[in-house]
């Protein structure tokens, strides 16, 4: 499949064809397009040496914002027809302003303007309901993480009807997640339904269909904890349930938010797999296993 490309747009903008098989182009500011190219170059670099892939991937994926991860997943999938772990993306014929040779260095932090543009691109995808060739249930052994969770990007809906059905299934998913935790927040014990959210440990955008609806991939959390968990500012040890808090959350905010606070019970084996993925690839900080010591707050 020919890779979606980057073209010079009007008034210095960049036109990016993100969606293979369609005529949909997204107009991005040069800074945003340049940032996307650097992310994709970094993605390619992680794949350049199979022996170093796991360590490079972990550093790359944990070092970028959740919306950046979703956009990289979107581009790689569109570029390669669902192939994510087993291929790189083609970045030839870039406009001169987008060329970069900094593949060994972590991309610079995305500005708020870049993150906002990435969020708009994601919304365009949802509205467009892109018809990407899919193979929903078949994954090669090489596509498996050591944790046993497939790291393939999202299987995008092929029609508005499919999107609607997926949203309806979310209600059932929430009910199933709550049922595993006695219909209350997994940390606070709050049972006030309107403020408890079913949070994904492995993000929706990076999960396959089965993982998206697996209640063991979820935690019922009150609104503030849901946002912290989704942003990778807190995570939970997969063995003990103790909470890890990212260093960027200051002491004053920790007091205001009541952090750290553990899960009300230890995770089961299935939940532990997803919580470990969250710590490895979503949590914005360092952590070490406390399987032996029983502690691990860092």
UniProtKB/TrEMBL annotation:
Protein name per UniProt: HNH nuclease domain-containing protein
Region annotated Disordered, chain positions: 136-164
Any Pfam family hit: HNH_2
Residue ranges annotated for the HNH nuclease domain, each copy included: 185-237
InterPro entries given in the database record: HNH_nuc (IPR003615)
